[in-house]
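pasting FecR family protein for the record, 325 residues
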Amino acid sequence: MDENTINWQLLVQHFNDPSDDDLQQQVSAWLSANPSHQNMYEELKRVWELSADAKVLQHFNVQEESAALSALLPDKPVYELPADPISRYRWYKIAAAVLLASIGGYWFYRDANKINFLTKTTAQQIDSVILYDGSRIILHKNSSIRYASNMVKADARAIYLEKGTAFFDVQPNDQQAFEVHVNHSKITVLGTAFNVNVEGEAINVDVKSGKIKFEPRSENGVVLHGGQSIDYTPQRGITTRNSTNENADAWATKELVFVDASLAEVCKQLEDVYQVTISMKGHVPLKKLNATFRNNPLSDVFEVLEAAYPIEIEQSGQQIIITSK
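structre below
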């Protein structure tokens, strides 16, 4: 800083971190350039310490907030002082008060408008979240979502699926849309039940009922109704199907539907829904299974399988062994 200029941002940083030697040297050079600067410095320091906002400002991140404040100020936040010493001193007091009020207002505005997010993550278990409106999100194992803690005041009920698989049972609300953000894509819902799976850049959506709109960042969106599904990758784009995987959401709903399913397919679905490990010994029967299970105990499912196939089933904890007769 030269003799007749005040770099306000530098002084603010100095008052926030008086132990910074580099800032101290720059301020000392400015003070020694003109005896009147000492009075100005003391006045600004006194206003700073008595300011109601000073207590909050002492704890802010100087580097981040100074950069954010600079974006709001003119390109060169350096101001010329009036030539007359008396006018200069009065101008200084007004400018100091305005500066502190502006920074304090900016800080509180940022704090008041900051969105706090809640995160729900599962490991080797299935868990669920009930939102304020009764909408339910069921998370598969190794999955994670985040959402605003005060969603009721938001323009939309926005959920961010960070990884894994989630089943959404959404309550209708014409005044507040329901959005699921996956990578750089967005799913907009009015009221429906659907399943979303994300693996890297690949996204799969199965709509059980209702209607959703899927919007990837790089192309036009598509509307899906109950019984439809899509697969999407940035490289291949959107692939729409007029049928869904009947058991895509079985891990959440506990409803299994098998139509001409092989025993191997049945066992794979049972492992996912009941969180068990199934091993098969001997010849695998080729007969197809047609059956529906709605939240049945695993023992009931095994009774049906043993009646339908020439097999014996043994269970030890989460380990299942199926042996052909």
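The two ends are 92 Å apart (CA to CA).
The longest helix spans residues 85-112.
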